[in-house]
Design a protein that fits this description.
Strand 1 and strand 2 form a beta hairpin. The longest helix is centred in the last third of the chain and has 33 residues. The N and C termini lie far apart (65 Å). Helices cover 39% and strands 23% of the residues. It is of the alpha/beta class. Strands 10, 11, 12, 13, 14, 16 and 21 form a seven-stranded mixed beta sheet that branches. A six-stranded mixed beta sheet has the order 1-2-6-3-7-17, with helices on both faces. The chain has two domains: 308 residues, Zn peptidases (Aminopeptidase, 3-Layer(aba) Sandwich); 112 residues, Alpha-Beta Plaits (2-Layer Sandwich), CATH 3.30.70.360. Helix 1 crosses helix 4. The structure holds zinc ion (ZN) (2 copies).
Length: 446
């Protein structure tokens, strides 16, 4: 058990210090908001983040998985290592008020606030007298590419050997950056209720990602369609085939398949011969994802067979379902409740979205709580904006720093309780083997 007196005193010091010294954390979030960049291209965001971490007197290891970085804060004595994560990337959202006019990238998932709340937590832990009382260390882990977008471009980067996985955290695992981490946590902003508080517990789906290329035969669309093979019609039939199988999915499996066409032809007066699609296949369990993925492949082949086109299907490892550690989540929840009151901390259930924090929670104890402070239809919508930086950055950072104090004070007794009570679903090697097994590149012709 935590020695209640010592931990409570330290947590008050941490929280007060973030209140009085946390402004640079909000500044970092606002700076990141002003130059949104998509995954593996977060050059300016990474530079600003590294500079902000350096102002705390910390050494920053940069250029990990292209744009990622880590920095370590050491406690007074050795002990477990806790990673506080933040994501660098934005996603393309045309019409967002803070979108980059050239790329349309925008922080419509509010990852800029994660950079801020991670920094706020680091600032709090550096309050005078705190670190000396902690046994262990904290690694600030800034990762690229959480939004699984621009699949065609990232797949080219993969083929060129610049990355293996299209998501940043799988890359961090592959590169060994999680090898010395015992516990991980990250706080994500949401537009969901409670706007003025936190969402805790809950789970997210996992996913595999697919890039699909239908190849047909070009001919004059009006004069000679009989000489063409219409790749767009093949894609249309495939999408209908995907829809036709939705009734076969069990509710508990939370299957989500939502294809888009990224290239639908070249000119209107020629039969489309090159049509490209991207999709996710999401599900609550790895087996559910596998089963749905086979059905999607069947529909994709059917589209090609119906019109005599060829389809190239690239299936890429995605993210694993989120499995939060209950003991750790309970510790964090108590800190969130201390900050905003129990009525403003809601328990979340199964969520249809996915995150590569899921991957980390399969191999170690971790949490992925949500914080409010944002408005709009939902994350990823063009009207999603953060309207409460005190909550999304400072309070979220305080809750994580207070959780670190709980874990690492009193000779890290609580951290040891979390670690010994946690049975990881798989080892790092098993994780990498599982993800690599999802990769396939197949071609079908009638
Ligand atoms: Zn997102
Ligand atoms: Zn996000």
């Amino acid at each position: 058990m935590v020695h209640p007196g010592i931990a409570a005193d330290l947590k008050k010091i941490v929280s007060d210090y973030v209140s009085s010294h946390g402004e640079p954390a909000i500044d970092l979030a606002r700076t990141a908001l002003s130059h949104p960049e998509t995954g593996y291209k977060e050059v300016k965001t990474a530079a600003a983040t590294a500079a902000a971490i350096r102002t705390l007197g910390l050494y920053v290891r940069e250029d990990i998985a292209v744009t990622g970085m880590t920095a370590t804060i050491k406690g007074g004595s050795p002990g477990p290592n806790i990673a506080i994560l933040a994501e660098l990337d934005a996603l393309p959202v045309p019409g967002h008020p803070n979108a980059d006019p050239e790329t349309t990238a925008a922080h419509a998932c509010a990852h800029h606030c994660q950079l801020g709340n991670m920094l706020a937590a680091a600032i709090g832990l550096q309050a005078p007298g705190v670190l000396d009382s902690l046994s262990g260390s904290v690694t600030l882990m800034v990762v690229p590419a959480e939004e699984y977008v621009e699949i065609e471009w990232r797949n080219e980067q993969r083929k060129a050997g610049r990355i293996e996985f299209l998501g940043g955290k799988p890359e961090f695992v592959r590169l060994g950056e999680l090898d010395d981490v015992d516990i991980c946590m990250m706080t994500h902003v949401t537009t969901e209720d409670p706007h003025d508080g936190f969402g805790v517990f809950g789970a997210n789906t996992g996913l595999v990602a697919k890039f699909i290329n239908y190849r047909g035969v070009k001919s004059h669309a009006g004069g000679a369609p009989h000489l063409g093979v219409n790749a767009l019609n093949a894609a249309h039939l495939a999408i209908a085939g995907i829809h036709a199988q939705r009734e076969t999915y069990r509710d508990d499996d939370t299957i989500r398949v939502h294809p888009i066409i990224t290239r639908g032809g070249s000119v209107v007066n020629a039969v489309p011969d090159d049509v490209r699609m991207e999709t996710f296949v999401r599900g609550a369990t790895i087996n559910a994802i596998r089963g749905a993925n086979e059905k999607v492949d069947r529909a994709l082949r059917a589209g090609a067979l119906a019109v005599g086109a060829t389809v190239d299907i690239t299936t890429l490892p995605g993210y694993l379902p989120l499995a939060q550690d209950r003991i750790l989540a309970t510790i964090h929840r108590a800190n969130a409740e201390a900050l905003v009151g129990p009525d403003l901390v809601h328990e979340f259930g199964m969520r249809g979205g996915s995150t590569d924090m899921g991957d980390l929670t399969q191999i170690m104890p971790g949490i992925h709580p949500y914080v409010g402070g944002a408005v709009g239809r939902s994350n990823h919508a063009e009207d999603m904006v953060v309207d409460d930086y005190n909550l999304a950055v400072l309070d979220a950072g305080k809750a994580m720093a207070m959780t670190v104090v709980d874990l690492l004070s009193n000779n890290a007794a609580e951290a040891m309780r979390v670690i010994s009570g946690h049975k990881p679903a798989m080892t790092k090697d098993e994780y990498l083997a599982l993800q690599r097994a999802f990769l396939s590149e197949r071609s079908y012709t009638e």
